[in-house]
Design goal:
Length: 330
C-alpha cells in the first residue's frame, strides 16, 4: 500500500473526527468529483479491510436496519459533514457500537453503489479482467459473454453467488446475457443497468463526461442511486450526462444512429464501441464540437471519420496497431 494511502487509512481508523472527511470523499467518489489522489486513497482504504474488517460484512444486515431508522428522521441522503453529525447524534442516542455507526453511515450514503458492493463482497473471490490494446472476450460464470473494448476492465464474483449477477465495468463493453431468474447488473460509474437476458453495450470511460447504454436485443432498466432513469427496449440508446445529470434517449433504426446536435465526444465513444478503437484529441475542445446527421455502422471507420472531421474542420489519424484515433485541429 502506498505510504500516503496508509497514512490516510491510519488517520481514519485512529481519529473519529476524520469520519467526516471519509464520508465527504466517498460522496465525491460517487458523484464523479474525486481527484485521482482521492480515488487512490479510497482504494487503499478499502484494501485495508481485506483481513481486519469482517465486522463490516458481518454487520451489514444490522447496519441496514439502523439506516432504516435513520432515514425516518432525515430528509435525504448524507450531503456532507453537517448531515453526518446529525446521524452521529442519533446513533449515539441508540447506544450503538461505533463499528455499526460506520456500517450504517456508509450503507446510508452509498445505497447500491459500486463501492458498497466492493465493501460487502467477501474478500478473495473477485475476478478482474483487463483488455489490452484490442478487444477481449470474457466468458462469465453464468454463461454470459462480455466483449471488452480496448483499455476496458470488468470485475465480478467468480461464482456469481447471491441473488444478483453483478459486474463492475470501467470503460466500454458489450454484454450477451444468459437468461436466468437472478438479474444481471452492470455497475458503471454512477449508473446501474439491470437485465434478465439480453444483448447490450455500455460506454463508461473515466475520462469522459457521459455514460451511454445501447440495447441491441431485449430490455434493460437503468438506475442511478436506486432511482430508475430509463427503461430501454431493442435498438434504444440512453446517454447520461455526468456533470448535469441530463438524460437523452433515442432510437437506432436500420443500423443507423440519428445524431441530433451530439458532441464529438459522444459520437467518438460510439465509433470506438463499433470498431474497437480508443479516441484521443490534441485539444479537449475538439470533443465538444457537435454534429447533426446520421451514422451508418455498415460504413467503414474511415468513411465515418472523414464525414465528421470534414464538417468540423478536424484532421484525424488512425493507428491500427495500437487501435487508437488521434484528432487534431486543421
Amino acid at each position: 500500500m502506498a505510504v500516503v494511502g496508509q497514512l490516510f487509512v491510519n488517520q481514519i481508523k485512529g481519529c473519529y473526527m476524520d469520519n467526516d472527511h471519509l464520508l465527504i470523499l466517498i460522496e465525491k467518489y460517487l458523484n464523479g468529483e474525486a481527484t485521482a489522489t482521492e480515488r487512490k486513497w479510497l482504494e487503499n482504504w478499502y484494501a485495508s479491510f481485506d483481513n481486519s474488517a469482517d465486522w463490516l460484512r458481518e454487520g451489514a444486515a444490522e447496519a441496514m436496519e439502523i439506516t432504516a431508522e435513520l432515514k425516518q428522521s432525515l430528509q435525504g441522503k448524507l450531503a456532507g459533514a453537517a448531515q453526518l453529525k446529525a446521524v452521529n447524534k442519533q446513533v449515539f442516542s441508540l447506544r450503538r457500537n461505533r463499528r455499526l455507526l460506520w456500517a450504517a453511515a456508509i450503507v446510508l450514503l452509498l445505497g447500491s453503489s459500486v463501492l458498497l458492493y466492493r465493501l460487502l463482497m467477501p474478500a478473495g473471490i473477485m475476478e478482474t479482467v483487463v483488455a489490452g490494446a484490442g478487444p477481449r472476450t470474457v466468458a462469465l460464470p453464468d454463461g454470459s459473454v462480455a466483449l471488452l473494448q480496448a483499455g476496458s476492465s470488468i470485475r465480478y464474483d467468480k461464482k456469481f453467488n447471491g441473488d444478483r449477477r453483478e459486474v463492475l465495468l470501467e470503460g466500454g463493453a458489450q454484454f450477451n446475457v444468459t437468461a436466468h431468474a437472478h438479474p444481471f447488473v452492470v455497475s458503471s460509474g454512477q449508473l446501474s443497468t439491470c437485465v434478465l437476458g439480453t444483448v447490450f453495450t455500455i460506454q463508461a470511460y473515466p475520462d469522459t463526461d457521459s455514460i451511454s447504454i445501447t440495447v441491441l436485443e431485449g430490455k434493460v432498466q437503468v438506475s442511478k442511486q436506486q432511482q430508475v432513469i430509463g427503461t430501454l427496449g431493442s435498438e434504444d440508446r440512453l446517454v447520461y450526462n455526468i456533470p448535469t445529470g441530463a438524460v437523452a434517449r433515442y432510437h437506432i433504426q436500420n443500423s443507423e444512429v440519428q445524431c441530433n446536435n451530439q458532441t464529438l465526444q459522444e459520437i467518438m465513444a460510439l465509433l470506438g464501441q463499433w470498431y474497437g478503437y480508443t479516441i484521443q484529441a490534441s485539444d479537449t475542445t475538439i470533443l465538444q464540437e457537435r454534429y447533426t446527421g446520421s451514422l451508418n455502422r455498415h460504413e467503414t471507420l474511415e468513411e465515418l471519420l472523414a464525414i465528421l472531421c470534414e464538417v468540423n474542420h478536424i484532421n484525424y489519424e488512425v493507428d491500427k496497431k495500437s487501435r487508437q484515433i488521434m484528432l487534431t485541429r486543421k
